[in-house]
Amino acid sequence: MTKPQEVGQGRKFGQVVSGAAAIFLRDGYAGASVDDIARAAQVSKATLYSYFPDKRLMFQEAMRSEVARLDGSLALDLDALVGPDRGIPQITARIAAWLVDPAQIRLYRVHMAEAMRFAALSGQFHDAVSRMLRDRIRLHLDRWVAAGLLSIDDTDLAAGQLVALAGAGLQESVLLGQSQAATDAAVRAAAASAASLFLRAHAPAPPHAMRRTIGTR
């Protein structure tokens, strides 16, 4: 039985992972050379191999570090007194801009390109991004639902739908090389449209409508 290769640990481990991530994001897995990675990490090839005896291990660790970095790359904090009429547009504006940010686009492209070779890793990336966005949004949705300001049965599902609305095809266009699709005006328009649609779909029933419904029972 072949002994599984292991990742080494040491003083320059973070430096190596950071350099590897920069090159993989720039050139992809197949196009990334060990020489370029060593230069970016400012270490010798011998040092590089002492940490990562295999290029696949290096790629996997570099991508995991980038996914971990995502957790702090999007802030959706809102003032506790802000209601959904102002809060939802703020959320969609931040999400739309985040989805087409060059750093996120590079990471998405690498995972899309390597989905067959690193299926589990790409799946983990997709799940991590989806969970991160939904968790941040759901905190606000739960608060507004509890206050009677929104009518939502499943806030986790609604949070995912809001992310999809905010992207509104922008991210797909940029991933396909149509960078002109993500102008500031286009991002603002997509975010505003998403917020408007979401607020209309989840507006609480007017009090008089609720009284009529109760009265017909």
CATH class of the largest domain: Mainly Alpha
Strand residue percentage? under 5%
Counting structural domains, the number is 2
Radius of gyration: 22 Å
Low-confidence stretches: 1-6, 209-217
Helical percent range?
A: over 70%
* SS elements, strand count: 0
Number of helices: 11
| CATH fold group of the largest domain | Tetracycline Repressor, domain 2
What is the global morphology? elongated
Terminal CA distance reads 71 Å
**Could you say which structural class the secondary elements and strand pairing correspond to?**
mainly alpha
Mean pLDDT over the residues: 87
| CATH 2nd-level architecture of the largest domain | Orthogonal Bundle
Supply the CATH superfamily name of the largest domain: Tetracycline Repressor, domain 2
**Main beta-sheet annotation:** none
Gist?
The protein contains eleven helices and no strands.
What does this structure look like?
- Helix content is 70%, strand content 0%.
- The chain is elongated.
- α1 (13-31) crosses α4 (55-70) and α5 packs across α10.
- With 217 residues, it is mostly helical.
SSE blueprint and pairings:
Layout: H1 13-31, H2 34-41, H3 45-51, H4 55-70, H5 84-99, H6 102-113, H7 119-146, H8 155-167, H9 170-175, H10 184-201, H11 207-215
Helix pairs in contact: 1-2, 1-4, 1-6, 4-7, 5-7, 5-8, 5-10, 7-8, 8-10
